[in-house]
Write a structure and sequence with these properties.
The structure is a homotetramer. The first copy, chain A, is an alpha/beta fold. The first copy, chain A, is 30% helix and 27% strand. The longest helix of chain A is centred in the last third of the chain and has 15 residues. The relative contact order of chain A is 0.14.
Chain lengths: 318, 318, 318, 318
Amino acid sequence: MQSSPATEPVRYSFLGPRGTFCFAALQQVASEDTATFVPAVDVPSALRMVRAGQTDAAVVPIENSVEGGVNATLDSLTAGSPLEIRGEMLVPIAFSLAVRPGTRAADIRRVATHPHAWAQCRTWIAEHLTDAVHVPATSTAAAARELAENPDADFDAAICAVPTTGVYGLVSLSDEIADNRNAVTRFIKVSKPGEIPPATGSDKTTLMVRLASEKPGALLEMLQQFAAVGVNLSRIESRPAGDQLGRYAFSLDAEGHIHDERVQAALVGLHRICPEVTFLGSYARADRQVTRLHAGTSDEDFGAARTWVASLLSRVTR
Amino acid sequence: MQSSPATEPVRYSFLGPRGTFCFAALQQVASEDTATFVPAVDVPSALRMVRAGQTDAAVVPIENSVEGGVNATLDSLTAGSPLEIRGEMLVPIAFSLAVRPGTRAADIRRVATHPHAWAQCRTWIAEHLTDAVHVPATSTAAAARELAENPDADFDAAICAVPTTGVYGLVSLSDEIADNRNAVTRFIKVSKPGEIPPATGSDKTTLMVRLASEKPGALLEMLQQFAAVGVNLSRIESRPAGDQLGRYAFSLDAEGHIHDERVQAALVGLHRICPEVTFLGSYARADRQVTRLHAGTSDEDFGAARTWVASLLSRVTR
Amino acid sequence: MQSSPATEPVRYSFLGPRGTFCFAALQQVASEDTATFVPAVDVPSALRMVRAGQTDAAVVPIENSVEGGVNATLDSLTAGSPLEIRGEMLVPIAFSLAVRPGTRAADIRRVATHPHAWAQCRTWIAEHLTDAVHVPATSTAAAARELAENPDADFDAAICAVPTTGVYGLVSLSDEIADNRNAVTRFIKVSKPGEIPPATGSDKTTLMVRLASEKPGALLEMLQQFAAVGVNLSRIESRPAGDQLGRYAFSLDAEGHIHDERVQAALVGLHRICPEVTFLGSYARADRQVTRLHAGTSDEDFGAARTWVASLLSRVTR
Amino acid sequence: MQSSPATEPVRYSFLGPRGTFCFAALQQVASEDTATFVPAVDVPSALRMVRAGQTDAAVVPIENSVEGGVNATLDSLTAGSPLEIRGEMLVPIAFSLAVRPGTRAADIRRVATHPHAWAQCRTWIAEHLTDAVHVPATSTAAAARELAENPDADFDAAICAVPTTGVYGLVSLSDEIADNRNAVTRFIKVSKPGEIPPATGSDKTTLMVRLASEKPGALLEMLQQFAAVGVNLSRIESRPAGDQLGRYAFSLDAEGHIHDERVQAALVGLHRICPEVTFLGSYARADRQVTRLHAGTSDEDFGAARTWVASLLSRVTR
């Protein structure tokens, strides 16, 4: 990724097809007017395209989503040649009941969608489409596309992401059919190591860390490297470190940017005490929440402290 | 759940239909000879049946599985009337390419399975069934059942859990089609609060904990309650605590049983400093790995320490 | 020490002779009308008298004082049969320039006092008694007594504790001759193990603790036993643990009383992880400062937490 | 202090007079052949001479000694213009019973010495000089000098440091009269800020640190700055921070030299989180014990970690 606008990534792989929630996330960071969108059948495939140079970046879910899970993403990020996160996007998980123009609710007998989407609209369906039968699809968007493009499709409606309805020329009978009306899924933009986006004051740094041992203190010691320098964690997930029984790996989101001295200090500590630390990117938070600084942890505080220590060091006899 | 064998739970809900990986997990703890197996369409439904008294226990995935995710389970466990974990089971994630007797590999044009299962066999399929098309299904077992029971099914093969093939009278053309041959998924048995199974020396205690604040020290302080008494964590996952921005909840597996003094001491500490602690069960580990005790943390060590303190306390003037 | 007033300790050993700062401390807790005061030549002797049953209690300095040091006291407390602290007293370190009636400042050529007292009045002496010569004495009180009782004493004035002047019938030419006008020394009342005074809400618990190892984490782990239960330390001093190179012992004052659940919990932790913990008493603070409770550390908080854990424990199958 | 031998400090103040234990400590680092020894009447005076430029360095006790205490030294070090520790020396606390040539034990009626020395030989005296009377002196050396130089002294013997006997031409009747035969006192060499002696691999760094608050976690947080970078403490003493009730100051000896990266990292941390940190010197340990390095805390470990972080930082877009 170069900084010149002319050479902005123009090819994006994403968890397709067009119309998925992941597609909506991609639309937040790129336009098809200036970029090529390349659908992938799953998260590993989307990332594989980046690694192979077939696309310049990928947009994939990083938190539990309807069609693909965070673990597939976390594992694929670190299994293979290095990739880094460049940004994150939030997408509301709102479903439409999409039909062909002219179809009425009373006409609906069979509804196509991804099994997970069906599960998330179960209450609404039980009330409004009592006798409807589920026709499974590989994604919510695939169901909508089939409905739109195949006159012989064996179903009358599709449950898909709200924006998808328009993508395929369908009509929404309701946009509020999800049982949980406030669900939001987080997606990330991933590319090969290259330029790290500048610090914004509202940043996140993602890491994968292995612990040296399994004593109760090992996790604590690792977290103390963050606490000692005032870096908060907004996400921590233990991951089985497959190669060795009883060893842990942790996927972490730390508040702050590698450009912040306190984040650098935490990383120095992790590198020293952990057998493996993988940097997975520093990037702007989607929620734009400004990082709260704790006393003594600003760049100025670090600078003043280092200046003092340097002045002492300069007096050591050589 | 009563302790008399005659009144063992006889009705189990599980993530159905028969033949799922979850079904295989259920078969590890119960037999259809003495129990009734009730399939549920998703994890929340399986748990809802227990809450409603329609089943005595449920078996559901607790770690990323092919057909249902850990997050749905974690969220459903704590959203609703109390449920507790009574045991865990490990199931190898091995897929069969199941066909009707007589079908040859060369005959296969369309393959039904859950989208996630399809994704996990992609490499093998690309090599061995180059031109096969994916027909999505709501579960791997549903695909197998449809193939077995519906002569008009519009596909020639199903990808399903290895044991499922026999369940439906199908034939396996290969049992080694998963891209990752070592995958294992963890399932749990859940019931209403009642008798907690006895300590075995190889136990796990699952908790959901909220932190009072979001300062970097808050997570550390919580973990110090475990470290101070020598209790190791084998799993930790931050969960967004939906009600309040910036507040965290953590899903934890602690090594040990509520019967162990050190686990009790950790829980006393959590109860004191955390606004909310939910006990989700003490139960035997599926891997039978014996809990390693750290110096000074055995029941004897706690007993001796409490005896000493009690002797001091007895001397305080009243 | 019995609780009946009639049998209150009636024999006190103290760092003598009468008129020392230690004597002033003793006067804060006992009256010669009802008790016998037995002067000792040094701190170990005062404690030895208690151990031998020659006195019921001893009053000795526990923080740097003019005539005897904290270390002698700390070491003597733990070297020998058990002793415990029953209370503490604060004595302002104010010196008099004591003379026989009739002596004027201009007459003073030679001034007797303990070498440490002389050092603490050096500035005043340099200004007001420019040519005076120091005659060393074993204590400030001994100097005053000699001046009062021995007409042939080879000095004209004594520097002694302010109250001492009157004890020996001398006259003070100034009570403000100390270079530091705000110095205060802490003394303790010590007796054999017996009844521990009741909690007052403003208490202190004194401990001597050995660490198992010298790794940087060992001290931290010990202190975490206090922090985990919200117990503050008001004093910590490392002491060489003479028997083994590189091992530490720590003399600690913890805020709170053994009657407080949080102090009990801290002691249980210390007993578990430290090779040696010596309880040296729970007693009222001299400054009457009420112990600040941190969230989640009151007896009620502990009680509620233990009740919850007990309710879980009661459900474990036996 | 310059590094050229020709300009080595040639004037030393010490806790006099000649013949004290402090004098013995001074003799370990300087010879009267090439340096001037200036006796001071107390520790503050010895340090004042350095501050005033009257001497180039001072040698004073830093741990409880017979004639002067650590607290006077600790307080004087930080109360006034900056001073730093340049080295430490250990002196065995062995006492002689010194007499004029010809005096026999049976002739001894009155024994002069500092009150603290008298206390430390009490057992031996009780056995061997049953009826001897104590004549107090300002120091052990002052007693010896008076005995040697004043034929009219009103005592027959002096208890003094073993080497002192010869200094004043006296004869020792016994060199083993101390009740504790293994006592050793630590002394330090102090000078104005200037060149810091080079790291030897067996070093100590002395600090005075104030804490921002008195919550139980504050001390812990301070110590975590050391633990997080693997720096062990060999001494910690809480000191009342006179200016504000409930605030603590701590006098610390950390293992290692300001030249060590881990010590620098600890100091950066202290400077950031503590309202006041005073550097009191990095210098060779008297016991020559090599500092044990913990995994991940060598200069190489720090260097490798910083190099990694720098490589990440270099990729941040500017």
